[in-house]
Design brief:
By secondary structure, this protein is α/β, with parallel strands linked by helices. Helix content is about 45%, strand content about 20%. The mean pLDDT is about 90.
């Protein structure tokens, strides 16, 4: 099984890349975490941000692997605690189905991405910058895996 983190943005600060890679590297081969970066749409004074978001969404939808469970990261989604993330990860591993996590850009996810999603996951009632979400997701997925496998990383 692979977890595809399909995120808008491809020029991240070093701390984002290093943070994401630290946790992705720890994942075992049977539960790989793979980042798919989608270029951000053009924005500017005379450009419509809605059109940029729609273009990003089209590229995200194209990047979703066939048959994958699609989860939109959205502030209006369900909030899952760590044991719930671990339970869901265990279910996904059991199904053997790939998972696609969609993370929007500066203006969020396109309506088309929200419509395509099978589930909606909210990391918090707070809104986080989209680069930080990559790091949080990678850490939480690794934590969930460690919980499932009685690894000492998760101590709660």
């Amino acid at each position: 099984m692979r977890i595809h983190l399909i995120a808008v943005g491809n020029r991240m600060p070093a701390w984002v890349t290093e943070g994401y890679e630290e946790y992705a590297r720890r994942m075992p081969p049977e539960c790989r975490l793979e980042l798919v970066e989608i270029g951000a749409g053009q924005r500017g004074r005379k450009l419509d941000p809605k059109r940029a978001m729609e273009a990003e969404g089209e590229r995200q939808l194209t990047a979703i692997p066939k048959g994958a469970l699609v989860i939109a990261l959205d502030e209006r989604g369900q909030s899952w605690d760590t044991p719930e993330v671990a339970r869901r990860l265990g279910d996904w591993l059991g199904e053997g189905r790939d998972v696609a996590l969609l993370v929007g850009g500066a203006d969020g996810l396109s309506p088309a991405c929200r419509e395509r999603a099978d589930l909606y996951w909210s990391l918090s009632k707070m809104v986080f910058p989209h680069p930080l979400v990559r790091v949080i997701l990678a850490e939480q997925i690794y934590r969930a895996w460690s919980l499932l496998n009685n690894h000492p990383y998760h101590r709660a």
